[in-house]
Amino acid sequence: MKVSYKGGALVAYKDTLMAFDAAEDLSGKALRCITHAHADHIMRVNESNPLMTVETFELLRAIRGLERRANVVELGAVVKVGPARIRTMNAGHILGSCQYAVECDEGTLLFSGDINVHDTLVTRAAEPIHADFMVVEATYGEPSFIFPDREVVYSKIVKWICDCIKDGSLPAFKAYLVGKSQELIKLVNEYLGIPVVVSGAVARVCEVYKKFGLGLSYFCMGSADADELLRSGECVYVGNRRVDVPTSRTVKWAIATGWALKYRFELYDATFPLSSHADFKGLIEHVEACMPRVVYTMHGYSMQLARILERRGFVAAALESAGTLAPLTRGEM
Ligand SMILES: [Zn+2]
């Protein structure tokens, strides 16, 4: 088995090619495997029947109007690809997000995609499996990125919303379209019971979450009920863009992202370090639970994470800098 960086990972086993979230044009020679519906992971989604979970397919239909064919599988499915098998496993990042485990005679290679190793209000934690080789995301793969407990962040968001309403403002969130928006809506539904008004784009994604069993309650901007709620100001707004919210109240904007741990967002009234990714500790825990002999890191702090994993006894390198095909046969590394 060999692996190389092509914007994502290209895995070669005998004459079979499998491309995981790869951004580069591979001229239809590889089976494309999409880990989840975020924009930076679906660059080549229109190429030759990519493999994805049924939830990801439905999300892409809602977001991108995807109508073409795809190899759609349930989470947990095993797909035979030439002499290898690909197993899909929950990644805990957003609805339908999956890790892919490539199983062949030389061992198992796990491609994590974006992962979260803790339960949230809308997702279950990523599952580890024993893997001989692993490609792990490194978005927050640097020791200063340790997030507070999610419940602590949740309670700070709840308090901020209550404070806004108490002082006569309307609390509004700019949030990622898929995942974070739904988590914020669920948080307000469960902890506060205040009505939530959402943008049309967020509503379309919420419909997919609801289709797969997540209860979400909200009003879509533009409806008579939503207009009335915004006028009264007794609601929370969640959108994927900052817009002019039609209300006479002062609108206070917040953003919820892991980057809030380190960076200032000066145009916002409040920031909350709520991430759909594993933090540094979570990434280390996930790698140690999978116990691979060789780890490649990808995206974000890939160099830093690879160096730290090396110090912890793994053979590790940043996939981006590993360059051309790297040997992964037993005994070579
Ligand atoms: Zn993502």
From TrEMBL:
This is Metallo-beta-lactamase domain-containing protein. Coiled coil: none annotated. The lineage of its organism: Archaea, Nitrososphaerota, Candidatus Wolframiiraptoraceae, Candidatus Terraquivivens. It comes from Candidatus Terraquivivens tikiterensis. It comes from the Archaea. GO terms for molecular function: RNA endonuclease activity. Residues 5-157 form the Metallo-beta-lactamase domain. InterPro entries: MBL, Metallo-B-lactamas, RibonucZ/Hydroxyglut_hydro. SUPFAM superfamilies: Metallo-hydrolase/oxidoreductase.
